[in-house]
Amino acid sequence: MREVTRATEVKARAPWSTASRLSQRLGKVLEIRQASMTIILVLIVLSLSLATDRFLTVTNLINVARQVSIISVVAIGMTMVIISAGIDLSVGGIVAVAGSFSAAVMATTGNVPLAIAVGLLTGTALGAVNGLFIAYFNLAAFIVTLATFSLTRSANLAFTHGWPLSVTTEAYNFIGQGYLGPVPVPVVIMFVLYLVGTVTMQNTRFGRYVYALGDNEEAVRLAGINVSTYRLAIYTLTGTLCGLGGIMLTARLGSAQPNAGGGFELDAIAAVILGGTSLYGGEGSLAGTLVGCFIIGFISNGMNLLNVSPFYQGMAKGAIILVAVLIDRWISASK
Predict the structure, then answer these.
(1) What distance in Å separates the CA atoms of residue 118 and residue 124, rounded to the nearest whole number?
(2) Run of H or E including 166
(3) Is 60 exceeded by the pLDDT of residue 335?
(4) ∠ at Cα 148 (142, 150), nearest 5°?
(5) Strand partners, 166
(6) CA 145, 147, 68: angle at the middle one, nearest 5?
(7) Is 323 within 8 Å of 294 (Cβ atoms)?
(8) What is the pLDDT of residues 1-53, one digit of tens each?
(9) How would you class 62 by CB atoms within 10 Å of its CB: exposed for 0-12, middle for 13-18, buried for 19 or more?
(10) Which of 184, 206, 275, 333 is most exposed, with the fewest beta carbons within 10 Å of its own?
(11) Is the dihedral of CA 106, 112, 114, 116 positive or negative?
(12) H-helix segments, the chain
């Protein structure tokens, strides 16, 4: 009986030993992975700059950063979800619904703060629904978020009747089309959120628990930490970021599109994995995710500049991502 009690006490202390192990392991593994993916990003930039003289221009690079900014915001939430050993396939649908609701309020009331609030609250509520079913009903994240994806996609088509919802208010569209000096507003939002997110993940209790959940959920539970509360918080925050992504996308296009956010879930997951986050949870970083987003962005932009047929772009992107991940894993395994 004494041995059982002692084992339980050791498990209960595991989150703190887990945090110690993570601080050491992540310092080495993530450093190698981020360095390898950064090298790959540099090689892609060099290759494209040699292939076309239109790639390495200030205008084009700013354009890529603006294109990447929205999926990067969504990928912040996806990073936290995957680090905690979860998955979220509903992000694209939430982006679409949040953008449409925000646009509808904007067109009806002309109130910019209200329209932004509705978009954020829509994303937050849908993320909370995901978290509720996953954390408190113990349903598989894959199934729950897949169901939410289907529901939000259909709901958005029904709400918009398949037609774009136009937004002409300049103050609202400034979020997606404006500049702060020479830098587009979406790019500023992206970097601010990544800075805040990185500090949160590395220096707060919430961030430590996100890593601990992915590394050893049972140990976290034995330590008396409410696992369900933190899982709910992770998916709710992801929904909020998707709501912001929907607002940014609507403001950038000047309208909410019925099929907005299509493929966001796949691009976000690809960026997170490219950035070195483990699909098994417990390892990852937002800095790596940002690198992964730019890898995908540069690949897409380069193929457009090289006039690669859209029929082959998906194949090329998938092949390059697969090779990049294989190289990353090989470098990590050989450390």
Answers:
(1) 10
(2) strand 165-166
(3) no
(4) 100
(5) 255
(6) 45
(7) no
(8) 344 334 434 344 444 444 445 455 545 555 666 677 788 889 999 999 999 99
(9) middle
(10) 333
(11) positive
(12) 2-12, 14-51, 58-83, 91-109, 112-135, 141-160, 170-177, 185-203, 205-222, 227-253, 264-274, 286-305, 310-333
Sequence letter at residue 224: G
What are 58's two structure tokens? Answer: 């200030």
Residue in the block written with tokens 């890898």: 295
Cα separation of 111 and 116, whole Å?
A: 9
- Token pair 């904007």: residue: 106
- State the Cα–Cα distance between residues 29 and 34, nearest whole angstrom: 9
Q: How far is CA 154 from CA 97, 99, 148, 248, in A?
A: 10, 14, 10, 21
- Dihedral angle computed from the Cα positions of residues 131, 123, 278 and 272, in that order, rounded to the nearest 10 degrees: 170
Select from 21, 11, 14, 36 the least CA-distant residue to 325.
36
Burial of 182 (0-12, 13-18, 19+ CB in 10 A): exposed
Q: Are strands 183-184 and 255-256 parallel, antiparallel or unpaired?
A: unpaired
Look-up of token digits 């009690």: 5
C-alpha torsion 146→149→154→160, nearest 10: 180
**Six-digit token string for 25:** 């392991």
Structure tokens at 152: 């939000």
Query: Which residue carries 């993320």 as its tokens?
Result: 127
Taking only Cα atoms into account, the Rg of the chain, rounded to an integer number of angstroms, comes to 21
| pLDDT value, residue 185 | 98
User: Predicted confidence band at 277 (pLDDT cuts at 50, 70, 90)?
Assistant: confident
Q: What's the rounded Cα separation, in Å, for the pair 211 and 283?
A: 7
Its pTM stands at: 0.88
- Token readout for 333 is 């395994």
End-to-end C-alpha distance for the chain, whole angstroms:
42
